[in-house]
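sorry for the late reply, my laptop died twice this morning and i had to redo everyting from scratch. anyway the thing you sent over, i finally got around to it. pasting the sequence first so we're on the same page, its 94 residues, then the predicted structure underneath. double check i copied it right bc i was rushing
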Amino acid sequence: MSDSNTVEVRILDKEYLIACPDEARMQLESAAKHLDSKMREIRNSGKVHGTERIAVMAALNITHDMLQGSQLSESTSKIIQDLDSKLDAALAKA
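ok and here's the structure:
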């Protein structure tokens, strides 16, 4: 098991200390920057007020984007499987 260190990240002008293994530090910092960016985008739109509401909206947006990417990957896999089956059938006839 790897050693955990405390990493300081800044999200929407507030500092958070997060326990994180050394090898995951860059990913944590990247995730924090992404979250900070999304929260600032929502806050700057002026449509959502309050840090908690901004955080929930950011979480929903990020989750939606992640699920869309997952669905795209599943669709791509299905297309590849279908093409593979058609190729096998065509080669079997030849």
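The first strand starts at residue 4 and ends at 11.
thats about all i looked at so far, will dig more tmrw
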